[in-house]
Amino acid sequence: MKISELRAGASNVTVTAKVTQKDEPREVVTKYGKRLSVANITLQDDSGSIAMSLWGETINEVDVGDTVEVSNGYVSEFRGNPQLSTGKFGKIKVVEKGDGSAGASDSPEEGSDEEM
Hints:
mainly beta; CATH 2.40.50.140; about 50% strand; globular; disordered C terminus
């Protein structure tokens, strides 16, 4: 599925996209008093981009430039914008490690293919 096809309310979503931005983690307190770490990322494919929040240990597993696959995700709306989430049953996995820069595959360098 392409990012441009995602709409609020969609569930069982599978998307493969590149991480183009990652905010610094911050701590939030749930209504039950539990402290959790959260970091926002932006995912992009050739059709568009979408925001996503990473929670807990997942924050350290994903970096800018990585290509990730989100499976069994769902799309909600936050402040009027669609946001992709893994929720309780979804997963996010890195399918290709990047070099830490958002434009890593945009310009050919030594040993890289021009076509992606």
